[in-house]
Design goal:
The protein is 50% helix and 14% strand. By secondary structure, the protein is an alpha/beta fold. The chain has a single domain, classed as Metal-dependent hydrolases (TIM Barrel, Alpha-Beta Barrel). Strands 1-2-3-4-5-6-7-8 form an eight-stranded parallel sheet, sandwiched between helices. α10 links the parallel β5 and β6. α5 runs parallel beside α7 and α16 runs antiparallel to α17. The longest helix has 19 residues. The chain starts with a helix and ends with a helix. It binds adenine and zinc ion (ZN). Adenine (ADE) binds next to α4.
Length: 337
């Protein structure tokens, strides 16, 4: 049977690849710009949306860093986080592991503590209001230096009880994982979990570096790993979770056509793939929209979707008993409707 949106909404899902700053909707951008007296180079929400046309990752990143300039106070970060959780709840998301980009804020003079206190408050209130559990992942911006990444890790030290792990994002080409080998080693020493974006635009060799040098526990995107069968076998045999973002891939021209998305091939290759929204305010869809796009374009069936949802739970950093509880719910709900 073809999976329907209502059936899918009811399933307990985890979202493992979501940039909080990428959930900043144009309406909230305007609201915060007015609240904080920040000038935006757009006259209307429609004008902002019209500017969201990208040929590659860097086109998007320029507008993404500009957009986040309206985020200044603890309340702003709290409101952003809470709004995302409200939207995720409407899609039936039960657990989220969210990225944030502190260097996108500290570079503008916003203290690290303001960012993390606001996000942490939003996550706690979101759990209270929507029953969504969470983990927070600090991303280093890979276009910046190793020294700046170390400074960011230092700034995070007083807040480690709120941070589950570190990640690596921003402009990929020319900024291989090897640039951050030492800072990832330091993060692991602190007991942090480690993930990294690799193989979104970068070559398969960047994925191999993320495995060998950063010792990642989860691979964000990983599309281009499909070009190297040895790497595919390695990812499969190690049970590595890939956090794939279909609508992001379409909007950033990682795939030419949604029907050419590699998700089905990844599933058939035995990879532990998951479906995620990346920067939903910029890419035209939250997590359910991403699942539906794949179901419609690739003809995924219920078994495929149940596998993807189970992968999202198994690939999370939740404790094993909690994962088992959610998988049992998934098993029951997956047979109904
Ligand atoms: N930062 C926010 N979204 C990103 C993406 N898709 N790739 C790299 N860096 C990002
Ligand atoms: Zn991402």
């Amino acid at each position: 049977m073809t999976p329907t949106r209502d059936w899918l909404r009811a399933l307990p899902k985890a979202e493992l690849h979501l940039h909080l700053e990428g959930s900043l909707e144009p309406e909230m951008m305007f609201e915060l710009a007015a609240r904080n007296g920040v000038a935006l180079p757009f006259a209307s929400v429609e004008e902002i949306r019209a500017a969201y046309r990208f040929d590659k990752l860097d086109d998007f990143l320029a507008i993404y860093y500009q957009g986040m300039s309206v985020l200044l106070t603890r309340r702003d970060f709290r409101d952003l986080t809470h709004a995302y959780l409200r939207r995720a709840h409407a899609d039936g998301v039960r657990h989220v592991e969210v990225f944030f980009d502190p260097q996108g804020h500290t570079a503008r003079g916003v203290p690290f503590a303001t960012v993390i206190e606001g996000i942490t408050q939003g996550l706690a209130e979101g759990e209270r209001d929507f029953g969504i559990s969470s983990r927070l992942i600090l991303c280093f911006l890979r276009h910046l230096s190793e020294r700046e990444a170390f400074e960011t890790l230092d700034a995070a030290r007083p807040h480690l009880s709120h941070i589950a792990g570190v990640g690596l994002d921003s402009s990929e080409l020319g900024h291989p994982p090897s640039k951050f080998t030492r800072v990832f080693a330091a993060a692991r020493e602190l007991g942090l979990r480690v993930v990294a974006h690799a193989g979104e635009e970068g070559p398969p060799a960047y994925v191999a570096e993320a495995l060998d040098l950063l010792h990642i526990e989860r691979l964000d995107h990983g599309n281009r790993a499909m070009e190297d069968q040895t790497l595919v076998a390695r990812l499969r045999d190690s049970g590595m979770t890939l956090t794939v973002c279909p609508l992001s891939n379409l909007r950033l021209c990682v795939v030419k056509d949604i029907a050419q998305h590699p998700l089905r091939a990844m599933l058939r290759a035995g990879l532990r793939v998951t479906v995620n929204s990346d920067d939903p305010a910029y890419f035209g869809g939250y997590v359910l929209d991403n699942y539906m796009a794949m179901i419609e374009a690739l003809g995924l069936d219920r078994e495929d979707v149940l596998r993807l949802v189970a992968n999202s739970l198994q690939g999370s950093f939740l404790p094993a008993p909690k994962i088992a509880e959610l998988l049992a719910q998934l098993h029951d709900l997956g047979r109904t409707g």
